[in-house]
């Protein structure tokens, strides 16, 4: 009786590959955070407490401090900004908030007597804020 080791091995390997792909898909879907797992409610909470004073609740640059900064607070519902949020989810927001070379936001707040409590930003916060803003922009089209 002859056994074909090569055919048994390749059949076993393809079964192992299939199991590995299923496991990878499972872990990718449930364990790796993505924009689809963003919490828009947390994004709204952050926006309301930290951004709306300049950007307004409609994110069009209509908040009470919108005209008190130089340059004035921008309208974030423009097609160009909308596309940037889609192309670079969370990156645009984090680059504005964490920019090391400018103090426009803290200076505007300070000059207008607005004191915000310290806030430790997380990647999830940026993702949540991006999700919330994208939702507001898409509803406002």
Q: Could you characterize what this model shows?
A:
This protein is mainly alpha-helical and about 140 residues long. The protein has 7 helices and no strands. Helix 2 (about 40-50) packs across helix 7 (about 125-140). The longest helix is centred in the N-terminal third of the chain and has 26 residues, at about 5-30. Residues about 1-10 and about 20-35 have low confidence and may be disordered.
Q: Outline of this structure?
A:
This protein has 141 residues and is mainly α. The chain has helices at 5-30, 40-50, 52-55, 79-87, 91-97, 104-111, 123-139.
Annotation, overall tally of beta strands: 0
Radius of gyration: 23 Å
Q: Strand pairing plus helix content: what structural class?
A: mainly alpha
Pattern of helices and strands: HHHHHHH
Average of pLDDT: 76
Tell me the distance between the termini: 73 Å
Which tags fit this structure?
58% helix, 141 residues, mainly alpha, 0% strand, disordered N terminus, 7 helices
Walk me through the topology.
Elements: H1 5-30, H2 40-50, H3 52-55, H4 79-87, H5 91-97, H6 104-111, H7 123-139
